[in-house]
Amino acid sequence: MALVKINEILAGRHTDQKVSVRGWVYRKREGKELIFMVVRDSTGVIQCTIKKANPSWSEAQKLTIESSLMLEGTAKEDTRAPGGFEIGAEAVTIIGLAENFPISKDKSEEFIRDMRHLWLRSRKMNLVMKVRAETLEAAREYFKRQKYTEVSPPMFISAAVEGGSTLFGLKYFDQELYLTQSSQLYLEILIYSLENVYCIAPSFRAEKSRTIRHLTEYWHMEGEWPFADMNDLMKFEEGLMTHVCHTIAEKCQAEFKELGADIEKLKAVTAPFPKITYKEAIDRLKPKNPALNWGSDLGYEDEKVLAEDFGKPFFVYDYPTEIKAFYCKTYADHPEVAMSVDMMVPRIGEISTGGAREENKDHLIERMKAQGLKPEDYEWYLDLRRFGTVPHVGFGMGLERLLIWMLDLENIIDAIPFPRTTRRFYP
Ligand code: 4AD
Ligand code: MG
User: Fold this and answer.
1) For 13-36, what is each residue's pLDDT tens digit?
2) Residue 243 Cα, ligand 1 centroid: separation in angstroms?
3) Which one of 25, 347, 397, 413 counts the least CB within 10 Å of its CB?
């Protein structure tokens, strides 16, 4: 008897054959003459029936929700069964009998969030995690095709990247260190050796904001490369986004269907993306939000309003220098503008930030001082400008932000298996 996966049966590969599956009880209903069970494995769910006359009837009666089991029977096509197939069970073996499973339909969202370790077995989380894995793979594939080398930066760092307000400090033996907010500065080191580099790694933000788009630990896809400008940067990001969206649209049709997510918007993503300057963004938003002026940071609400005009991914570039990090390169003839660009998508707003980096040591020191940073904390970073400095660009895209947009998820916590937020760090 062949040991098979449920999705193979659902694909019609074992119809009218004897099969054996291993998995867990997802649902169960006992009638007088027949037990209906839905069994799940990593690949899907399938309806199984056991007749009273079957020697395994009493064993099947004992089965509780989430018990693990091995089941043998005949795979049959049955249009009444969800998925169109079922297994007529002939033998049932309990592997691990489950206690009373705490998650059921009537439970609150809050309760389910506390039961994350069990909720990850749900169909929704199973499907989201598969799309997440495919997204990571598609992104890596794109970087690799473009000849970028994957590198591994540290998570313990000694100086801030993105400003002190979201920095997590920690005791490191007798010293104070931080958790990295972005791997950018380390990628900048590595371009002098490897040129085009990228990493996919966690970033940490002591983010007090409780929104649907903020985590305190998220996965960051970051690229950095030399001899390049803002146009090269936007072109690369468009290429990455298009490749990921099209790959997911092709490979994850079943997941999108079951999750009820709109796959068409992924197919519609094509380069070049619309591009507007920050100034134009302010002009567009001003009638709706009169408080906005040149120099204001765009908030979540502003970005959402802006994104409605486009209905697809787009760029906003050339931000005011004063609201941007110290490493941003500015225009020589109008230094109040920084070469910084955000990619935005409908409903979520910003999903990536990138830009050209200041390659002149003296300008960089001025920018650090203007932001109250101590140049001596960044000696190694200044060395990069001392020894063979080069124009370079890079960007960082939040994996979970990309996923909530692609999958139409309501909250970023569902885009990562173990969300970390101000209040959540269990399990
Ligand atoms: O805009 P940010 O802060 O830019 C940087 O960190 C740059 N150093 C990146 C670079 O140039 N290499 O963060 C980049 C992206 C954001 O656009 C967003 O998608 C994501 O990281 N992000 C978050 N995602 C979830 N939760 C948070 N708290 C996030 N903060 C940023
Ligand atoms: Mg940003």
Assistant:
1) 999 999 999 999 999 999 999 999
2) 20
3) 347
